Amino acid sequence: MDVTIIWAAIIALGLFMYVALDGFDLGVGLIFPFFPEEDERDIMINTIAPIWDGNETWLVLGGAALFAAFPEVYSIVLSALYLPIVTMLVCLIFRGVSFEIREKATRTKNLWNLAFVAGSAGAAFFQGVILGAYLQGIPVADGVFAGPSFFWLTPFSLLSGFGLMATYALLGACWLAMKTDGDFQQRLHALIRPLTLVLLAFMVVVSIWTPLTDAKIAARWFASGLLYRLIPVPFLVIVTALFMLRAVRRRYDTTPFLLALLLVLLGYIGLLVSIWPYAIPNVITLDEAAAPRSSQLFTLVGAVIILPIILIYTTVGYRVFRGKAVAGAKYH
Hints:
CATH class: Mainly Alpha
Number of helices: 15
CATH architecture: Up-down Bundle
Number of domains: 1
Oligomer: single chain
CATH topology: Formate dehydrogenase/DMSO reductase fold
Structural class: mainly alpha
Radius of gyration: 20 Å
Helix content: over 70%
Number of strands: 4
Order of helices and strands: HHHHHHHEEHHHHHHEEHH
Mean pLDDT: 87
């Protein structure tokens, strides 16, 4: 049994679940300014108020799993990306506080609306910056970070930041379209169409930029024959986008959200294939970064217990609060 691969799969699952779940509630904050009416904003908040903090469990799981299974990667990544990671966490804190205070505020409600929007936008942007910097490669020497403090601030990482914001905004709009009806839902459907096209544009640019700026990824895609196995991915992306536009045109409730999740999954698969088998692209492989087998087996016991618990309470939470959002309902 290759425990290293199992741990890599657990971390990959945790990251995808975080992007899929916390992505849509961050996306609600990103599209908040498009709906200035406070009644509609209250509905938007109420659709995610019961579940947003549970969604962030997956981020904690991913970080804890990385520390347990690949401690060298954990130390390098945190040292290299300390500034964007801390900024992201500060944004998440302000956003979390705005959930609790906004409902009770009167004179300062606009201030907490701003904190919700800024926290959501900042968290999404810096998560994308972290991803972009990671994909471009982290300077490492003798097992430690060996680059300048702002090595992560590049055109590609900024593009990744805005691309992830577009991804989350689409997820958020699709989630709200599933949870609302009437005129509000129609305006959300109208927003989904351009967001889908913007996301497709970012996916095309990143797909072209990545192999052009990284010779090793280009060799992996083109020289190794991997390209032929990846051809279905862009094809499926196009088909999914066409189905998305069709679902929006027909005013479907749930279908746009499921298709948005499929778009995210397809992009995620392409990302994983591009960096495999590295834990830090082109520097440290998974096997080189892995903790001792005994440590991995010991912590895997905890993961086998915790993962089903997280999945169960996440499922129960979504089931309890299923259905359309009701105006005036309170979940606090």
